[in-house]
Write the structure tokens for this entry.
Amino acid sequence: MRIIMISEMFNIEFFHPSAYYIIGGLLIPLLKGRIKQGFMLLLTLLAFFAVVNMPLGVYGVYEFLNWELTFGHVDKLSKVFAYIFTIMGVIGIIYSIHVKNDGEHLAAFYYIGGSLGVIFAGDFLTLFLFWEIMAFSSVFLVWYRKIPSSVDSGFRYLLWHVVGGLILFSGIMIQYSVSGDLSIQYLPFHGWYPTDLQSVATFLILIGFIVNAAVPPLGAWLPDAYSAATVTGAVFMSAFTTKTAVYALIRVCSGSEILIVLGVVMAIYGVVYAVLENDVRRLLAYHIISQVGYMVTGVGLGTQMAINGVVAHAFCHILYKSLLFMGTGSVLYATGTAKLSELGGLYKTMPRTMIYTIIGGLAISAFPLFSGFVSKSMTVAALGEEHYTWAFMGLMLASAGTFLHTGLKVPYFIWFGRDRGIKAKEPPWNMELAMIIGSLFCIGLGIFYKPLYALLPYTVHFEPYTAYHTWETLQILLFTQLGFFLLLKKLWCENTISMDTDWFPRKGAKVFMWFINKPLASLEINIIGEVYEFIVQKPILRMARWFKWVDTFIVDRTFSILANLTLLWSRKLQAIQSGQIQHYAMIMVAGVLTLILIGIILP
Amino acid sequence: MNLIKIIDKLRTKTVKKFAYGLLVLLILVDFIIPRPEIHFFGDKIPGFWSLFGFISCALIIVVSKWLGQHWLMRDEDYYDK
Amino acid sequence: MENILINNLDFPVITVTTFLPLAGALLILFIRNEVWIKWLALATTVATFIFSIPIYTHFDKATYKMQFVEIHQWIPAWNINYKVGVDGISVLFIILVTILNILCVLVSWKAIQSKTKAFFVSLLVMETAMMGVFVSLNIFLFYLFWELTLIPMFLLIGIWGGSNRIYATIKFVLFTLAGSVLMLVGIIVLYYAGGKTYDILELSNGNYPPHLQVGLFLAFFAAFAVKMPMFPVHTWLPDAHTEAPTAGSVILAGVLLKMGAYGFLRFSFPMFPFAVKLFLIPLLILSVTAIIYGAYVTLMQKDMKRLIAYSSVSHMGFVTLGIFCLNQNGIEGGILQMINHGIITGALFLCVGMIYERTHTRMIEDYGGLFKTVPIYIVFFTIFSLAAIGFPGMNAFIGEFLIISGAFKANMVIAAFSILGVILGTSYMVWLYYRIALNEINPNTKEQLTDLNLREIATLLPLVILVFLIGLQPEVLLSYMHVSVEHLLEKINATLPNENFAVYDSMVSITQYFKEIIGWT
């Protein structure tokens, strides 16, 4: 039994799922209560089914000025991303359905709509349009938290994304002026720095994508913003911005070797910072950086198995990362804090949330039987096949680190650790339902992985459940666990933050504002502005004073004989100089008219 | 909650001993397990990944903490000053 | 006379559109009732708008020749005729003038309490003068209208303006007058050089000796640069904009600034191409300086109106950048951006004016949290802020895209700097938005802020529609320009080959040129 689609009813082949989110989203504020909630859920489900029924091909091509805009470029790669985005949309909406503020829902809808738009864009202008929509709508998910630090965070987030977007834009511009073509093409960047104009274009486009993928040093916005977002907003944000960037990198820049290095560095960087973190959502955010590092490495490698691995990894990552954010978000919701130094002993009051979070942690660590095992390992194996030994070891190291903090540290310090007797209870039913769905996916995909593999862009020659592979993974993970328990004392959390590369813009901003407020301001006000005074006002006034002297002492005396007559005349003239502006205006208009009349009559 | 009771029961010494036993089993099995493709030198050595896991974990903890204490960690309101 | 196309309609549509406001002003002079005055002003501006619509429906987009031309003899002894017409370059400005004037009347409904009759008379005379500038085909007539715009503006700022209005208005008049006087000298020289004619089309066909071109270019440049305003003669702008009443600011920013750029396109490009090419690189550098310097100074402003005024300097820098690229994309982008800037900055000034009416303060620090107190207003303000940033899907994005792509073809380095200008532009708008809309609610102004009433929504709504219309279907406007811009470029490139002067070449040729004049070999 197939669901009858709007597309079938109207005999249109392709109905952009974004339309459900962007146009349907506008109707949300008009509804109330249960109807509104049901409507939102319906929209997300409709979008999902739109993707299910979507045939491959190119649709939605419009002529705009002298360019061609393509809104619906559908192939296996975009379809698999669209699947997971729409699924995430459903889960996210279920999780956040209790939120009363319509603005938050609208922001989430536009955010999801924007990312779907990027996925299906066939040319750079459309991509850029949706890219910007994503940035401007997701910032509201941070701003709605409404505490001062979140408002500041959101502002920084927006600036980072705008700058990244503009770098992307300038890359697009140069690409257009070099090739005259705006369609999304395969533009790999080889080497370490740009050499000619075309490579400048690809380099800038790469940088633009990298900002959204949160590659260090340009990724400092991610921990900043994701820990400051609302409880439900962070769940959305963890899924979309970075994965959209990964999609873009796959589409445009796969095979750019520089990404391999950046990816491995990123993976380890994220792990190192995560170990230091106290705020659990910031920890998870750094961990996103680590996981995306795997993906970036895979994109850099560019082989079919690597790309398959990246896509599979992105698919599963969205599910388990959002599950982790949902779990810790529930803790934040229930206790009011996300700081590990203030949490502990919650297994007695929130046991089910603990189970879901642990499932997420096991999935992300690529435990056998969980979704991470069938996806992440593909990328790493691809590296191994190409014999990039150091990269391979680096990523395995990061895997150990992953399990360390997300699979072990987070659950331990929240649910076990020191019991601080915090009063908490399980989150509302909708949040729990969302977490159950997420957990089911995490376990389900781990066991029934063939459907996932069928969605991947290239045919899969990878078999995750070899005895060797399973055993190898178990070894790493369980011995990491040993290390964790032995070194537990070293990991106690203090209430600190770690400096990240956003030190530069944050401290730098202060210097920048000083520069504007002092030297530049004085240039404008004291120097350039003074020119007028110096050249015009002072000389004119001085001349005027001289003329007044002439008038008083020379002219007046000369006319003193005629003074009486002058006085008589001036009394007559005073009547016109009434000092009222209406009369001036009338005289002015009358004067102009007279001149025009004279002008017409005379010649 | 039944779940809580289950968890409480698990936090006993018996479980710990069982876990250690599992670790030993892992290394032993590694000697006999078939290895399909060798891309990496470590694939040949039995017990390699166990050691790798343990050392990675220790390394990460030690290095990160060192970096943190000497350089990266600041007070919470560092940026507001 | 081969480049004119006599009258598409059997109706002097341009004369009517130009002088209808003046007729309305005359009528108002005889009315005492304040309410009737306002309604009559509104009726006049709406009527002007309606009369201007046939110009667009009957416009022939396939020709570069002047259309809707009307010629009447005036002073034949000096070859001064009343000759008006439009082509692809000037036609869009007519509707900009008519629409903005309607909105000015609407926004001044309650704001102007004293001497309302004089206010609306001045406003309407202003409309006539502005329209005349854009449609004149006789240089003397052009100058007449150009100067005529000064007087009502002087009154608008000087009488109904803010606290420092006298200083601001005198500064405005003196700056503009200084430039215009130099232009007058240039006009007279041009008259003799061009064979004793004031006709713009005939003068455009002349081939003037290079020295003369340079001198005349500089003379005209004085007037246009002050009007634009270009750096560094921009200092009259912030004072004039800040002190003017809302309607005055809208007209000033929306229309008067465009007259300068229009002057470049109508006079300097066809008549003095050698000089344009000679000074190309310095002009481009000046434009980029205006963009970046204007944006930087905008960042530090504490007064909302002054902030938007300085942002105008930055935006007009983009326009000049586009124009001086000397390619199709750049010039079309420049003209389009002029229209866009008129819409967006006009809208922003309208927004500020509405808020000012309620709280009588323009200082940013007196505001905060408007998101919660006046949500309808914030919807409009958000749309216009995003438009000012150049958000894709809205009008400024198209303009900026065209200009930057034109700039990339002309000179890469300068284009790169202009992107910096876009980044700065985004920062100051987002920061302004953040401080006003999102911050904590400011107790100083909380009580006085009421949301928009129907009249104010009606004022802003057409601009919102235009923002999206132009953003999504720019071809609607751009289609008017294509042929005329092509023709203009042909003319410029006919005299000299179209090379991109490297900086070194341009500076070398400039210094060589001046050495020749002085006789220094």
Notes: The beta strands of chain A are 57-64, 67-74, 497-498. Confidence is low (pLDDT under 50) at residues 1-12 of chain A.
